Amino acid sequence: xxxxxxxxxxxxxxxxxxxxxxxxxxxxxxxxxxxxxxxxxxxxxxxxxxxxxxxxxxxxxxxxxxxxxxxxxxxxxxxxxxxxxxxxxxxxxxxxxxxxxxxxxxxxx
Length: 109
What we know:
Shape: flat
Distance between the termini: 16 Å
Number of domains: 1
Number of strands: 0
Strand content: under 5%
């Protein structure tokens, strides 16, 4: 799998997980409709399926995915929550992406 395809898949995976967790948050913390549980469950099911599409060991996929999740969560903070990330948020996300790149794209024997 090419690096670009893997990154796009990780980004989509992170987005589906965050949406799947954000919808119940809206219901429980913001008083929105309990019907948000249905699209939340669908989003989390898609999330789990997307993780299976990577052609490498599951532990490596989960570890690398964590770095992308951190990056997308910081973007979510900015775009959806309306809170501008700090330089430390950006630095942490950059370090997480660097770790993800090493885990996922390092040469293997």
